[in-house]
Amino acid sequence: MKKILSCLIVCLLAFSSFAQDAGDEDASMRNAATMRDNKMIEEATSGWWKNSMLTHDKRIEWWREAKFGMFIHWGVYSEAGGEWKGKEVGGYAEHLMRKEQITKKEYLELASKFNPVNFDAEKWVKIAKAAGMRYLIVTAKHHDGFAMYPSDYSDFDIADKTSFKRDPMADLKAACEKYGMKFGFYYSHAFDWENPDAPGNDWEYNNPGGDKNLFGGRDWYDVHPELLPKAQKYVNKKAIPQIQELIKKYHPDILWFDTPQKLPLSENIRILKAIREIDPNVVINGRLVRSNKVSMGDYLNTADRPAEFFPVSGDWEAIPTTNESYGYSKFDDSHKTTSHFIQLVANATSRGGNILMNIGPKGDGAFDQKDQRILDSMAIWTKKYGQSIYQTTASPLPLQSWGVITQKNNLLYLHVFNWPKTGELLVGGMNSKVTKVYNMVDKKKIKTSVSPQGNLILELPKNASDPVDAVLVMKAKQPIKTNDLRYLDVDAATNRLLAFDAKLNGEGFSYGDGKTNKYYVTGWKNTSQFLSWDFVTPKATNFKVVIKFIQEKENSGEFNITVDNLSFRGKASFTGKEGLIIKEIGFAEISAGKHQLKINALEISGIELMKILEIDLIPINSIQ
Fold first, then answer.
1. In the chain, N or C terminus with fewer CB closer than 10 Å?
2. What is the pLDDT of residues 306-346, one digit of tens each?
3. CB 597, CB 532: distance < 8 Å
4. What is the pLDDT of residues 417-426, one digit of tens each?
5. Measured between alpha carbons, how far is 140 from 192 in angstroms, rounded to an integer?
């Protein structure tokens, strides 16, 4: 019952939109419940949905163990590759139709050129599995409304409108079964740009839900409820029939939905009910039914393209992309490093989450070589260290400055991102007796000792066994006992006190979405609010104090950072430059022992003080 109730908990978080492309992401991707919606909520939570949650743990068991999956955005837009009529189209390539306001007739001309002769389902699946991925989700229908499988409910599909007469969804399903991968679909239920009854297309049909913000904008269905029957016609005639068709034809393990705010909550609940009526076992992600009252998915979805993770309770999943677009764009060369994804997977796992990593294949069905290189490198790492990820749980220990920790029964896997220069690794928060520590790759035993303060110290060789994420295995007596003392690394290059990891004191704070330079705390609007971090220093150390925040024109004020009896004042003011600000505050000599660092507002002269990302404590010895 506790886990069932956790699915009702909704993170009241502020999701920031991706600035490059208005309309791609909503501020919250959730609905505000009205009287109409509340009736549907009551019916669900007291009846069919409540009953469906009785088998929730069994249904989601494979997903909890999998940890790492492949997300595939592939469609007609992949043929264009971010180009339209000889012009580069920036942002999300899969939004080509909307961004260029392409008519259905013109889009069909593009579809007629779609012939993925290099598509090989087995190759896709084998690449994903080699990279350590345990489930695969592919776009059966994206916002353009084009079905990537033969559909009986629309001829706007791959069988009727392209020269490619095979069913790629059937091929992928068969390949996943052959190689032991879980399989599922992304289906755009609320956006459909080809359908004259669906939300989204305001350039041909003057429909609500598009960039023109017609009929009241985001909440069009509440402002103009007389338009709702038209959208319900689309749901009844296309969305529900196609979703049920996908279930009956392919028997997916998981269904993935998005942009629920384009339809009222009542319609999203109706779609969920239609799914559960024919399949009680398919896993459903967290972006079909969620409001400030309920979240009826099997797990929560956090932000897209994250660099850091805000605090989340229960089961959750994040979806990074190899570059910045989900669909293939020939112009987007902003690919991250493999080390970024290795550490992202380990970090998410240590916090109880999954990573669903997106790949955008080309129109011909081949993977971009830049994506392929990332996947090949991931394969090398997961072959060595995969057991420290799969079937593990979140770390019971506090945050560590050197990396993260995952757990499997009495084994703790120490993912060391920052190898200690001194050869000594302090494991903070460990109270249980440790019986053995060894390197996961070569099984070499690692000596341990206990400091005068009672801290566990690992005596490591000079060089790391892996420069990105060296994994050490620590065997402890059960039950594993810990405390919440976070130790700073006094020999590290930097100790990052992220805003996401701070204690938020006062009402009104919320989190950014976790993207690069968006892992901030926002809503800092009065002087009674403050952030604090508790930590321990194992010995007296002199630190340089640095603050990172996002500066915007409308935000300004003065703040104060205190630790023990030390105090540092600073200003957040617009000086002609918006964006990331890195400001050195001063130097703090901090004694050995427990401490609290606090930042509070002295004066707020703008809409809010600032959007704080982190405070860094850099040991002076690491600077020299």
1. C
2. 999 999 999 999 999 999 999 999 999 999 999 999 999 99
3. yes
4. 999 988 999 9
5. 13
